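hey so i finally got around to running the thing on that chain from the lab meeting. sorry it took forever, my laptop kept dying and i had to restart like 3 times. anyway pasting the input first so we r on the same page abt which one it is
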Amino acid sequence: MSALNGKILLIEDKLDNISHIENMIKEAGYEVFRAAGTPQEALRMTILMLQSTMIIAHDSLSDTILSTAREMNKEISIIMLGTSDETLLLPSIQVGKTAYLKAPFTTSVLKAVIDFISR
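ok and heres what got predicted. didnt touch it at all, straight out
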């Protein structure tokens, strides 16, 4: 298990297979906290309250997550999930490591990405 103590915030909004993704994360050995992605203010408050060091969410929530991470002034690793063939352009905000994982993916791929960005 990595330096982030095995706790990951999984944001539910727009992830069709949320239970499957949650099970994949648990199978990889991490504890999962789930949070709703909307409304944006509720998501922002959840991120601020939990002070998670890693967030996994649909790429449509990148602006809210990145601005909240900047507000926390804390390094957070972020994995954006999506189905786009286009490159996701994340704003150049230093919040920690970021990754984009295109669906579909396997548990071993998800675990490898989590391990890589949590170093």
